[in-house]
């Protein structure tokens, strides 16, 4: 328990349980992914089971090369599982689909198209039945949401890293997927830009009534705790599995400055550190 009036463990726990009673958005069922390599078969992840609820924010965390992107790839449909299946919104994932928007670390914007056109093209390819005016409205609304409307005629090369990432996020939101998959979306950004991007992301998620499911790969423990409802910690590969799933029962909206003083935050941070590292100083040999 805490004396801080802004922190309410009982309410936060019930908020957490409310999410857990929602219907499943993503069901990862006994997924194994093996790759053929010149040295033989390499099994990256093995027998992974994970259910993510509608509107939940889940972070995947683990050491480099443990298989986080591979697992995300099976959810996005860009990586075919060797065995097992992923069910997204009740349907077996057989490839990428407009119900799952993806944002990568490298922005994946088309460099020859303006900011506006990068989003318009995506909207145009998904909303075949909408009129040009309706599509223009969607582009405008989403660019304004990430405060990049004044930069709409610039090419990606004329933007800063944070701006490019906001365009990528606006594009993912514009196609209005029920599932947003973020693979280290803020990895290349400086700490200040990263901090404001976290707030932007939660703002967009809130504006959408917390209906979008968000799965995010990260290496950043603070980012994982600030954003997520649960953090999935993976073991090192090969044949990586889930080591532990850590619940983050911190109330929302979360305040970046205050949250670090919350005993739940500190406890969770310690727990994640212990799960990820076995040495904490040069004396730990
Ligand atoms: N197409 C492929 N062919 C062969 N091996 C692959 C392939 N894709 C991934 N791997 C291997 O699978 C393992 C998991 O890779 P993955 O990219 O999923 O890890 P990660 O946890 O996302 O890493 P990072 O945090 O460094 O981005 C690694 O050992 C990688 O070398």
From TrEMBL:
**Where is this chain's protein located in or outside the cell?**
Cell membrane
- Annotated GO MF terms: ATP binding; ATP hydrolysis activity; nitrate transmembrane transporter activity
Which keywords describe this protein according to UniProt? ATP-binding, Cell membrane, Membrane, Nucleotide-binding, Transport
PROSITE patterns per record: ABC_TRANSPORTER_1, ABC_TRANSPORTER_2
Checking CDD domains in the record gives:
ABC_NrtD_SsuB_transporters
- Location, primary (coarse class): membrane
Q: Topologically, how does it sit relative to the membrane?
A: Peripheral membrane protein
Its GO CC terms? plasma membrane
Q: Which domain of life is it from?
A: Bacteria
InterPro entries linked:
AAA+_ATPase, ABC_transporter-like_ATP-bd, ABC_transporter-like_CS, ABC_transporter_ATP-bind, NO3_transporter_ATP-bd-like, P-loop_NTPase
Domain ABC transporter, which positions?
26-261
What NCBIfam families does the entry give? ntrCD (TIGR01184)
Name of the protein in its database record: Nitrate ABC transporter ATP-binding subunit
Species of origin reads: Runella defluvii
């Amino acid at each position: 328990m805490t004396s801080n009036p802004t922190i309410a463990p009982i309410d936060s726990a019930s908020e957490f349980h409310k999410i857990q009673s929602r219907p499943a958005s993503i069901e990862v069922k006994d997924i194994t992914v093996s790759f053929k390599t010149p040295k033989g078969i390499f099994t990256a992840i093995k027998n992974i089971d994970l259910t993510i609820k509608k509107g939940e924010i889940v972070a995947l965390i683990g050491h480099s090369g443990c298989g986080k992107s591979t697992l995300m790839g099976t959810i996005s449909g860009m990586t075919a599982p060797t065995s097992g299946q992923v069910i997204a919104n009740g349907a077996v994932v057989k490839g990428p689909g407009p119900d799952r928007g993806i944002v990568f670390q490298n922005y994946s914007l088309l460099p020859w198209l303006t900011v506006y056109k990068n989003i318009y093209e995506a909207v145009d390819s998904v909303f075949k039945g909408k009129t040009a005016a309706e599509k223009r409205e969607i582009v405008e609304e989403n660019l304004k949401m990430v405060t990049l409307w004044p930069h709409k005629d610039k090419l990606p090369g004329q933007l800063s890293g944070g701006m490019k990432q906001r365009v990528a996020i606006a594009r993912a939101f514009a196609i209005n997927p029920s599932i947003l998959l973020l693979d280290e979306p803020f990895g290349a950004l400086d700490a200040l830009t990263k901090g404001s991007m976290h707030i932007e992301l939660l703002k967009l998620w809130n504006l959408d009534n917390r209906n979008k499911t968000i799965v995010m790969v990260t290496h950043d423990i603070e980012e994982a705790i600030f954003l997520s409802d649960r953090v999935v910690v993976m073991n090192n590969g090969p044949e990586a599995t889930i080591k532990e799933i850590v619940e983050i029962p911190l109330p929302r909206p979360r305040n970046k400055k205050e949250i670090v003083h919350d005993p739940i935050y500190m406890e969770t941070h310690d727990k994640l550190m212990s799960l990820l590292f076995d040495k904490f100083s040069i004396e730990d040999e």
